[in-house]
Write a structure and sequence with these properties.
This protein has 112 residues and is mainly β. It has no helices and 9 strands. Helices cover 0% and strands 54% of the residues. The two termini are 13 Å apart. InterPro entries: DHCW_cupin, RmlC_Cupin_sf.
């Protein structure tokens, strides 16, 4: 990965893209810096992602709460101020939220 020069991110200026879930909607604001992706993601009330994910992430909960469901059947609840990290291909997981949530998600080549 190449060096990333010092920079700030003003999320108010980053376009939101809409991603429909099995239920609810996710809004992504994405910055791509080479092999590093940084996203501010908001899940609507009643959101259930439409797929099982095997990609690695560092996920920090900024507001609200959500459940990360693992394919093992385990449910991990995260709320404001909590973080989880997982590498690529280590677990299948998906996100669910009853009340909505705002997350900072970082992923990329370094999680392989």
């Amino acid at each position: 990965m190449s060096s990333i020069p010092f920079q700030t991110i003003n999320w108010d200026t980053i376009e939101k893209t809409e991603h429909i879930g099995t239920t609810g909607i996710a809004y992504w604001q994405t910055i791509q810096l080479g092999g590093l992706r940084i996203r501010k993601v908001t899940y609507s009330k009643g959101y259930l992602v439409d797929h099982w994910c095997q990609k690695g992430h560092i996920v920090h909960c900024l507001e609200g709460d959500f459940i990360s469901e693992l394919d093992s059947g385990e449910h991990v609840q995260l709320s404001k101020g909590m973080t989880y990290a997982v590498s690529d291909d280590v677990s299948s997981h998906r996100s669910i939220t009853a009340n909505g949530v705002e997350l900072l998600i970082i992923d990329g080549d370094f999680l392989k």
